[in-house]
Specification:
The protein is mainly alpha-helical. The protein contains 17 helices and no strands.
């Protein structure tokens, strides 16, 4: 079984590397992607204060990149190595969990192939290797798999690694406590999973600037902002008590009609709807100019809302303004003035 799993992991990793090489390279931040400069400062220059609180919530990623950089001396290659190892760990964790359920070989083959062809891991390594999400998912998956096996030193190490790789990986030790507290002595279970909670709190304390940041963590708006794995392409439905397939039917997705058509479907099936204040997408020159005004000229989109700093968007826009002709294309202030404002 272990030999089969090893073969699957090696084959999937080789295929992943090949797809990454075929995918091309990003030019943003020297090939590291929009967030890469922040993690490069942490891993290469050891600037632990670089980036926002959200950027610092995954210290395992720059730490792993720093170890790779000590060998390679190349920042981009170091992040690529971390992502390749993370992908291999993710496949191993998936196979490990399937083995616990006595899944047949064809199921493991299907899952492995799905991970290879999923696209998201490949896009991360090809276009934005300097981001911690793949390592976070891999460490989280390994921690969950280990928690199913019970307590012990290896399980404890994997729990700590998971909460250092992603803040939402705190779910792994919580799951481990729930699963094992009645099966094993409470002292052994506590010794296995308690260190992960301590490390999680320490990371939160450091990343958020002390006790006041921990209090701020309790605000729902902050939790929502930190949920880096949520995507605007997903519907987040709160309090849905039943399936309503009609809500998603006859909707022309990815158009300006989605909101009106969704409201029409909801009215048709008798669902009560609460509308949040309107905001804007950044998908054309006009809305990009609005974003520029918010980030660099203190021009809020709406006086009804507090302006969000959007640190990652500001870094990307600053890079585009300094290195390309974006300012001229958007009819903004001259390039030197932008550089001063962006700084």
């Amino acid at each position: 079984m272990r030999i089969t799993k090893t073969i699957l992991v090696l084959a999937a990793t080789v295929a992943y590397v090949l797809l990454t090489l075929l995918g091309g390279r990003a030019s943003i931040a020297g090939g590291l992607g929009p967030e890469g400069s922040v993690y490069e400062a942490m891993a290469v220059s050891h600037d632990l204060q670089a980036g926002s609180a959200v950027d610092k919530l995954a210290p395992a990623f720059p730490l792993a990149a720093a170890m790779a950089f000590a060998v390679t001396g190349n920042a981009v290659l170091s992040f690529l190595i971390v992502n390749v190892v993370a992908f291999a760990v993710l496949v191993w964790a998936a196979c490990w969990i399937l083995d616990m359920h006595a899944a047949p070989l064809h199921v493991k083959l299907t899952v492995t192939l799905t991970l290879v062809l999923l696209g998201i891991p490949t896009r991360i390594s090809a276009f934005a290797p300097g981001q911690p999400h793949l390592l976070g998912v891999a460490a989280f998956s390994m921690a969950v798999a280990a928690a199913r096996c019970g307590s012990g030193v290896l399980t404890a190490v994997l729990q700590v690694a998971a909460v250092m790789a992603s803040p939402i990986a705190i779910a792994a030790p919580l799951y481990g406590l729930w699963r094992n507290w009645r099966r094993e002595p409470i002292a052994r279970v506590s010794a296995t999973f308690a260190p992960a909670f301590v490390v999680w709190l320490l990371v939160q304390y450091w990343a958020r600037g002390g006790a006041s940041g921990l209090v701020d963590l309790m605000r729902f708006s902050r939790v929502r902002a930190d949920a880096a794995f949520w995507s605007e392409s997903l519907f987040i439905l709160l309090g849905l008590k039943a399936r309503h397939r009609r809500l998603f039917e006859d909707v022309t997705w990815s158009t300006d009609q989605v909101a009106d058509q969704t409201l029409a479907r909801a009215a048709e099936i008798g669902l009560a709807v609460h509308l949040l204040p309107a905001w804007y997408d950044v998908d054309d020159a006009q809305s990009l100019s609005v974003l520029y005004g918010e980030l660099f000229e203190d021009r809020p989109f709406s006086p009804r809302h507090d302006r969000h700093r959007a640190a990652s968007s500001a870094r990307l826009l600053r890079t585009l303004l300094e290195r390309n002709d974006l300012a001229a294309r958007l009819d903004l202030v001259p390039r030197p003035a932008i550089a001063v404002a962006a700084g």
